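the two lines:
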Amino acid sequence: MSDSLPDSFKYRSLQYSTIKHLLSYHDTIPYPKQLYIFGNSNTGKSSIVKHVLESVVTKSNIIYIDCREIFSLNMFFNSFFSSFINDVDDKKKFYPKNLNEFIRKIRDYCFKQKKKQQHYFVVLHHIELLLQYDTSSTLLYILFKLEELTLDYFKYTLIMISNKSFNNLITEHTIEADLGSLLPITIFFSAYTRTELNGILQQTITTFLDLSSDQLQLLKQKISIILTLELQLFYDVTNDLIELKDICLMCIKDFLRLNERSIGDNDDGDDDIDYRLFYQKEFLTKALNSVYTRTMSVRKFLDTHDIQQVKINNDNNYYSTLNQQDVELPLTCKYLLIACYLAARNPSKYDKQLYDKRQITKRSKRSKIAQKRITGMIKSTNEIFISKPVLLNRLLAIYCSIVGENNPLTCQTYQHLTTLCSMGMLKLVGNKTGNINLNESKFLCLISYDYIKQIASSIQFQIDHLLL
Amino acid sequence: MSSSLRHKKSMNNKRKIMKTTDSTIFRNAEIEANIESLLQLLKRHILEMKSETLLVSGFPSSGKTKVLEHIFTNLKTDPIVNDRMTIIRLNGLLHAVETPALQEIASQLDMYLSDCNIDPDLSTVPIDNLQLLLEMYISKLNKSNRCFIIVLNQFEYFAQQKLNSILYALFDTVYADKSTLACYSIITIAVSNRADCLELPEKRLKSRFSNIHIIINAPNSIDFAKDCLQRFGSTRDHSNELMAMDKAFSTYNSLANIEQTLIKMLRCCHDNNTIDDIGETFNRPNTQIHGCLTHLEILLLLIGLNIVKQIELNSGKRIHHTVDSDDEDGNDGQQINDTRITFEQVYNEYSKYILKNQKYFYDKGVVSKAFDRLKDRGLLEKHRNRYMNEKFNDEEILSFSLKCDELQSVLDSTTIPTEIRRYGKMNNI
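prediction for all of em together
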């Protein structure tokens, strides 16, 4: 049996040594009764436990139950016995229907085998899922007291693995007063730090890539830099190793594709494209919003998104590759679009009544309604809306009004305006000769009523109240 | 009707308070004397074929089972007593109802029959009468004058069982007419964590219990620890660790926890931080959120707590939370678990926050997934409706299950970005 820890768990050496010392055989010191291992998901808890048990214990003494595969207590009993009993003929006899039978059958079986008094290790992975099926709220206590209930015939160590701390595991219905006297030994698996994740991902991703050792050597540094760039964004959102592995692997595959293309394009083999320019926040955010949220698979994302093409698209103001409906805009952009639409739709003489909050009283609202009745024009949502250019100052004034006083204009607001222009939702217009007056910039709103309605509803903004 | 249940004049004090330790098993001569007197009482009852009921109570894990097992082990040393005695152990969580209790008794009696090389078939025969079961057992053994010691663990669950309780069957059997071929007695030992467990059963059951009530208090933690260390064969000086343990166990010393702590200490004695671990092992572990949550998750927690605070302020409730670490009136980080929120409420507040701080702008799907991870960690719990007919909304209603002081320690950490810390301070979270 291998005693060394696999390389992928080099940051878990302390937990590994603690668990190994607890579960190793000792002449005089008994095994611990209960062990509770918890921490974030995908931090190596069950892998370390399995590795330790396989190295110190014979396989027949390990009863491992993954509670994600358990959907009732009967399933749990059957899974337990299928691991516990080695003899196939005996297995057929043991199908307990309830807890009483479960305990009795364990005791009877151990009583028959009493000459070979063994110590078992019962591992319950994701125990919080199993406890959901416990209607009597006594299962956890009974699992703790199994040795006593089986009259000391079944000797075991209960190893529980969970994402939650032990405090949160005990629900309001369990016998907390009794259970409080039976605290397990707890071992905590902290989340990986960014440096550790970088190291692990560099190791594991290179094994997934189908590259020769020479290619790997050439690209190793660039892959490392890309991983660092990715983690700068992704680590703020998730520190889950498996999630990060998926999205980082995808970005690396994209880089390799770009690399091959650039090598193919340059006949003399010059690789002077600064790849770091490409892996900016926009691309990584797209990856996060699609692959991380599982709205798109890795393969589909690679097929539909290409970092170079996305950059070209942004440079050429070419918008048609992306469906308007699918783009999730920043909040500022949404408010800017709403402000522009309102400015284009409503005449400027009603701005004070509509947007000046100090003057929004019942009187002004009545005047608005009266205006509607006088004109007798009912604006249909299906009417074709001919957009008029909107002055920048007016646009920003309406924007500030609908956003609120606490959000002043910043340079990022102007940045978002240019983004919207590049996306084709707004258009910077000039006079008939084509000259653009920067002092009095004018913008044209190019979006439809349906789309602005959708944007407004996504931020719960009642745009219809402000449309005349 | 036997009068042996009601009085025991040989016992001077009807209520005995004992302290238990290990290894001799007991250190104190007075305690040992009391245990000895109980031992003699049981021996006498076994030899004289008298029935009795006793109550043994004490805090959880204070040594009740250890005392009884020690007594039973001593009883077995006497061959005559051992020959007459049959011990049956039942647990109130599993055997409060008559049918499963009878099945368990039959199964345990079969084990005795197996030991005597007699065909064990009591559990295969459907028996619904305790007296019949015991008499069948005696006839199979072909020995009369048996004494059954029935230990009822978690007695409060037996007492709370109203219908088809095994207690009725048990006491009916005690007072039933016995045949000459199957002469037996029953000693019932009720074991409970509750001091008021005798108030729980009905009057007619309560009256069947004698006045013998033994209360067991847990021993001094250091004494017990020293006994355990001796039993585990440790010869090193563990005085520092024992001092740390005494401090950690100052409020309540559960023998099981002391033993587990010592096992960890002895097995992991190479670790340098063992002394610090002792307090941590015993004390309830905190949620360990520091260092395990991402910045987005911390921000969502702060936003959620801000919403809770606003809701409670609006509803007029007084909330207690530690604002300042120097605040003497701080209530040590009271848990917030009453006010309910939904994800949509948190997302709306998040949308307002990112208007000012674009750095933490993410898609709704990403925010939702971060929220789900908080639920997986147990920091947010799904609210359980109290009433069955209360309508469920489409949205999941959640409540917090973390303490303010834990989050406060995270906010005070230097690794948290300034804007998040500022948000927490500004909203007095």
